[in-house]
Amino acid sequence: MATAVANGPNKDEKRADCIDGPTNPMVTPLLTDLYQFTMAYAYWKAGKHNERAVFDLYFRRNPFGGEYTIFAGLEECIKLIANFKFTEDEIAFIKSSLSSSCEDGFYDYLRGIDCSDVEIHAISEGFVVFPKIPLMRIEGPVAVVQLLETPLVNLINYASLVATNAARHRFVAGKSKLLLEFGLRRAQGPDGGIGASKYCYMGGFDATSNVAAGRLFGIPLRGTHSHAFVSSFMSPDEIIEKSLLSCDGLKVCEDFVSLVHSWLSKLKWSQLLGGTFGETNQSELAAFASYALAFPENFLALVDTYDVMRSGIPNFCAVALALNDLGYKAVGIRLDSGDLAYLSCETRKFFQAVEKEFSVPHFGKTSITASNDLNEETLDALNKQGHEVDAYGIGTHLVTCYAQPALGVVFKLVEINNQPRIKLSEDVSKVSIPCKKRCYRLYGKEGYPLVDLMTGENEPPPKAGERILCRHPFNESKRAYVVPQRVEELLKCFWPGKSGKNREELPPLKMIRERCIEQLDRMRPDHMRRLNPTPYKVSVSAKLYDFIHFLWLNEAPVGELQ
Ligand SMILES: Nc1ncnc2c1ncn2[C@@H]1O[C@H](COP(=O)(O)OP(=O)(O)OP(=O)(O)O)[C@@H](O)[C@H]1O
Ligand SMILES: O=P(O)(O)OC[C@H]1O[C@H](OP(=O)(O)OP(=O)(O)O)[C@H](O)[C@@H]1O
Ligand SMILES: O=C(O)c1cccnc1
Ligand SMILES: [Mg+2]
User: Which of 153, 218, 313, 540 has the fewest CB atoms below 10 angstroms from its CB?
Assistant: First the structure.
């Protein structure tokens, strides 16, 4: 074990304490709404800026018509908090943006602030979460925490939305399918593209085509080729370098293209396949042969440029069989148009016939990737029809969150100077839940989470085996006694400020992904189904219920009828 240096922490300890800045350098203290600065000034002017405030960050409704959400984006929030400091340039810009009547003392104040006195409790990233439960509780000097509202909401909103979208696509596709995120070109700008790759991986995708995201986050990279590559070839005569070394390195095939041609003839005249196709497109054959020469160990062909069954599939098989002669195993094909259920089944039959006719073991299992405007509904339709797809490449609908463009994350004041605060609304679902709270997940005897429970900060925690009354926060008649088998505290300290608490580690992305998959597996199936899922119960303790309603009556003016 390393021994500590007398004058402070040793190198390892120092490194553990240092948190890099946000992935996107645009995430600075200026990435906020102007009104956060005007409020900060007004707090400062009123001498209120150091009042201790507690804000909850939460959302009101699960996205995509579902009953669950994946919490994502926390690491980037902590990276912002850890590095929150204004530069002189930024202060000069704020000064130029606020009224000239704002006093200089405010800018001295801004110069001095950071998040060393801010305390953040949060649910762990990758957890399944539900409406109204604080995902993060942010406590600190009111002016500082107010400045954090916009960037924190921004960092959580899309991250959680797209991670949930990915989890939902995974749910429909099934565990055995390979899911590839292909969305960069369609994402909402570079940050949308990078964020989509990170959080789709977190939500259960296997790989991305986004090279920058692969480098930044260590996400596995995968890809095929495009129609342009196929249509860029005119004929097999174009291929100059035709030799290919066998997989074992022991022999050289001097003319791989001729070998491919000979296989194409065998396919055409074979007993099982004869008559299913005639002349295939020769420029496509040239493209496939070239790709195989470039990547003999990773040959995957896009087969729909001209005609899937009459050209793409026979051409692919000819190249794959030629590769097989040299000891290579072709990876598979990608379908990017047409009826994906029908074409995948026909392709599978063709592969199985090739396996049988030419005794090529496992050829029937050659991988079929499908793409083209896929979304939850099309995946579901394919399942219902029956298909033979092994992998999906999904772009536009996944990364743009086409089905729902935003998760309504909000940031509400729940306490100031130890005084609970409430925000009332005509719409009960928008009434905020006051007080600095603790949150628990109560598990039932079958191991499923039963209910999430919010209590006041100082209430005794629920205990396994002890009956506790869980109440709907606003509906008097909805309540239930729960005897939890297990109790899990949800909010953990991710930024201790000056509290002296231990800080939770920020785990690597792969670990968050595993946690997310495990969390989803643990949910009761009726909460997860696509059609009419059962809402998960979110509740408050009896004491908190009484307090909410006391405060509500206290703050709401009594109407007068005339
Ligand atoms: N069997 C199927 N059941 C339901 N939807 C499917 C099925 N096969 C494909 N789809 C979907 O139908 C849509 C077909 O779209 P579109 O008509 O634009 O494609 P296409 O004409 O096949 O291909 P392209 O225009 O790219 O050449 C896509 O969203 C695709 O995902
Ligand atoms: O369909 P998405 O889910 O967005 O997935 C990514 C798509 O991007 C590529 O083609 P692109 O859409 O650029 O061209 P295409 O529509 O002509 O195939 C690829 O072939 C997929 O179809
Ligand atoms: O690798 C692919 O096949 C790919 C990548 C991005 C978009 N469409 C397809
Ligand atoms: Mg497309």
Answer: 218
